[in-house]
Amino acid sequence: MEKIRKILLSERQMPRQWYNIVADMPNKPLPPLNPATRQPIGPEALTAVFPMELIKQEVSAERYIDIPDEVLDLYRLYRPSPLYRAVSLEKALGTKSKIYYKYEGGNYSGSHKANTAIAQAYYNKKEGVRRITTETGAGQWGSAMSFACNHFGLELLVFMVKVSYDQKPGRKLMMNVYNAKVIPSPSTMTAAGRKILEQDPDSPGSLGIAISEAMEIAVEDPYTKYSLGSVLNHVILHQTIIGQEALLQMEKAGDYPDVVIGCFGGGSNFSGIAFPFLREFFQNGKKIRLLTVEPSSCPKLTRGKFMYDFGDSAGMTPLLPMYTLGHNFIPEKIHAGGLRYHGAGVLVSQLLKDGFIEAKAKMQRECFEGGILFARTEGILPAPESTYAIAGALDEARKADLEGVSRTILFNLSGHGHLDISAYEKYFENNLPDHELTVTEVEEAISKITF
Amino acid sequence: MEKIRKILLSERQMPRQWYNIVADMPNKPLPPLNPATRQPIGPEALTAVFPMELIKQEVSAERYIDIPDEVLDLYRLYRPSPLYRAVSLEKALGTKSKIYYKYEGGNYSGSHKANTAIAQAYYNKKEGVRRITTETGAGQWGSAMSFACNHFGLELLVFMVKVSYDQKPGRKLMMNVYNAKVIPSPSTMTAAGRKILEQDPDSPGSLGIAISEAMEIAVEDPYTKYSLGSVLNHVILHQTIIGQEALLQMEKAGDYPDVVIGCFGGGSNFSGIAFPFLREFFQNGKKIRLLTVEPSSCPKLTRGKFMYDFGDSAGMTPLLPMYTLGHNFIPEKIHAGGLRYHGAGVLVSQLLKDGFIEAKAKMQRECFEGGILFARTEGILPAPESTYAIAGALDEARKADLEGVSRTILFNLSGHGHLDISAYEKYFENNLPDHELTVTEVEEAISKITF
Predict the structure, then answer these.
(1) For A208-252, what is each residue's pLDDT tens digit?
(2) CATH architecture of B2-13+69-110+239-447
(3) Is the CB of B419 less than 8 angstroms away from the CB of A422?
(4) Are the CB atoms for B417 and B383 separated by under 8 Å?
(5) Strand positions, DSSP E, B273-312
(6) Interface pTM (ipTM) of the complex?
(7) Cα distance from N-terminal residue to C-terminal residue, chain A
(8) Residue B1 pLDDT > 70, yes or no?
(9) Confidence (pTM)
């Protein structure tokens, strides 16, 4: 009999709660600090930026949080998402291992970002917000938020990192289809943007800069709030639906992963798939390896420093305890725009520090090679970001074969690459520069941090 | 309780046979003719172009044909495809009707074309073919065939209609990812292409021209065969898996359509969803309306003539009995490149003539408007081709509301528009010219036909 390729769940099997890892962490995350006083900030410090319900989730230690019906209803547009057994990829590799992937690119936004976009738009609308500002790197987050805001009747203003704005005009157009306004960042619309442009008129931008711009607009207007697509605890909370579904699907497949892999930008797609498996370890002692894969040119987890730093370039956020390359660091213009972020989410940072997570860094060229092998075998053209997870999975399969063992590998295919196809053109033109950020360069970047 | 949005089938529920409508047609299709003798041609006349198994399917009158295991296995990468209830679209329209859509864009190629690409590549490989040539309009067919050929170890040469090649660089790159070679058509590589370029060096190309070029290369080499993405009986046969799944899914939903709608280029996506419902009428007397929607600028079904004509521009194919605008007709450069074909498949032509199918023509601007409404409500960005089916469904819902009745409407969402996003840009720029081909223009086009 042929091997089953897809493990599906019905809408009725979709989880109805998000899982909050904070409840099970042996060392709780350190608190965010007020940069001026260096004292822990309370939830009230965030009210200019976020609606109250999201602030509550940000600081919650409850293990489970109910997903509102309105959010579940929109999730049903595309969830549960399929889990695939990579039958053709395994065959091409000749590996003894089993490779599974959870595909989060099958929804309207083309990535996992829809899971938190829908939730964030819903809570904002419920609290009377009229407009949302946000940043986007490669554009998946902006697309996700555009549809969600339009659905709930909210205006959306997106600051899109300039290098991605130029590389990926399709993403901007997609946001326009969903009724959003898109501005290349750094822009002259904000003080934060103007300051960067004064220093470097050709700045390619970065997620850190775009965040500063979006926050600046939000705090100026009581009816405008800001929304972030990764990093924060509430964002990661919303993504845990991925891993909860994957647990049910692996059970349906009669299997359990030895290792769970995700690419790493701010932490949300990795945490989304990984944390429910970590819960199984914390609660039931089920062994698991969790592996993040980040770009060698933006290696905060493998070469960054665990310290308090700002989440944005201009220093508008509270100070967060995280692995960072310094909030002024501007990463190389790699095509995985969603991974071009200087820091890592607080939850992942603490868990990495405590040894529950492994991190590795990869060069973009090797990742694209893996992405093309994946496309030619499994069909789906992966987002540049997702190729890092694929490359990580290929490494694990090859390593297992060298050791003469069969492992069960699960990775998160966080998005498709239809709107990032120009990156593949660069690959074929042999025009994908690779830069490995050295320890010295990281130290230099961190020494530049000013508070 | 919330309405269910998706009706899914498991891999085990996937149909294992294709359905051949010829077995149930009251008037069988007229035979293809040899252009020189005007006598019916036999299967042997096609052996230079197609492998024997596909020729057998082309002329078969068997009701069911088994799907080979190797084809079923690749179908499982993405089939069964989901059937959606368009809950959000219905709400936005305020309609009393129920709207369902079968989504064929969720696979690697982004359209229904994968269903026949996999089958055609398989049969060619089985009969020792080494290289395949084909044409592509918007690029969905070329992408579908690229992956399938690469999977089965076949080379692929794609002649891509020049206007689409220029409008949609992403599609060319996607084919490159899947290892295919792509040539803009008309090209200097063939006599057919050179002849067109002599007459008009700036020719935008057409599917008819690209077919001539691909066939010319195929007939010159015994190890090269040609492959067509629509129109022919065997292509339509392979697409019937769509409608067979939809029948099972409608049953699961406890519903049955009053009308089934598809956009119309050569006939394959429409026939694929519609013919199994027509089988239910022929065999069990279940009432159904079948509606095709074609561009007003390429209206072969609504304004063309039923006659014998060539399937390609250069006159390399047999003469086929079909609705046509004349094989030399070059349609307007609309963005629905897949609908820019002068003729209609023989099966659909006969069934339209016999009154089993309805046809209507729409302007591209109105279709894009429908496509944007669809994207903003249901999330999925439709291919320009698929917006014609959407526009048809919107018409039906509004008509039912005017009549004060509730109908059940089913349409085929044949593909996504991620790689056609520049067309949406043109829409927002108010730069989508609309041309309605008049009866006089059609008569003029047909009078130019030479044999």
Answers:
(1) 899 999 999 999 999 999 999 999 999 999 999 999 999 999 999
(2) 3-Layer(aba) Sandwich (3.40)
(3) no
(4) yes
(5) 289-295, 305-310
(6) 0.94
(7) 63
(8) no
(9) 0.95
